[in-house]
Amino acid sequence: MFKRFPVLxxxxxxxxxxxxxxxxxxxxxxxxxxxxxxxINVNDSVVKSxxxxxxxxxxSILDSIKRATDIMFGGKHVCVCGYGEVGKxxxxxxxxxxxxxxxxxxxxxxxxxxxxxxxxxxxxxxxVRAIDILITCTGNKNVVNREHMDHLKNGCIVCNxxxxxxxxxxxxxxxxxxxxxxxxxxxxHIIWPDGKRIVLLAEGRLVNLCCSSVPSFVVSxxxxxxxxxxxxxxxxxxxxxxxxxxxxxxKMDEYVASLHLSTFDAHLTELSDEQAQYVGLxxxxxxxxxxxxx
Length: 294
Prior knowledge:
Low-confidence stretches: none
Number of helices: 11
Mean pLDDT: 92
Order of helices and strands: HEHEHEHEHEHEHEEEEHHEHH
Radius of gyration: 22 Å
């Protein structure tokens, strides 16, 4: 819309974005002064990043690969590219079923977290020849390139859990030196001249959306978050939001979480007046500062 219909874009009251790649684009527009409407970054809200990215992917990665390949995970060597919330969920799930998991990371903090969680942090080039499953979770492009895939062993499963379908360089496989064999829906064998084949899932698109589904409970959490952000932008008086990208207010994050607690019959403890005064918090929240990391 920004490129093809700039007049319509300028007429928007605001934008709500929940994807990593989309948020990056909005920040780029804001830095260059081209963002002409306010935007709310839902992707980095606590309830979205924790429940959609971490907890949902922790389950859907197993379901997706199982549905597509019927593989057993115990003893398999797996490389998870990226140890953000999605990568953390995937790595934990695979480790829980007995897989031997290593992680690639560019961020030293995430790499240290992976190390403390018991995962080897490697460069992909170091692990690529020995792994049985390769999963991308970065949101970047060409994380897995043709050279990497040339060195994968026979039968390796390759799939993407990151937002963008550019993480795996699938286009480099669409030439005459390798052959595609369509096995079934969302499953292709890529066959090299020497007979080696890798199993590519969903042609590099989001495997949990193509080979599985997102639980309705998680959809409820993220949809509620987006709806509240849209209502906030629509009702905001002129001047409250400039042409910039904003994080979801902490109070809204807490409200979305509170709406879903009854599903688990969870009962919150309430602060007394004395306790609230002692820690300097409102009795009804927000309970954490905006910089708190859950």
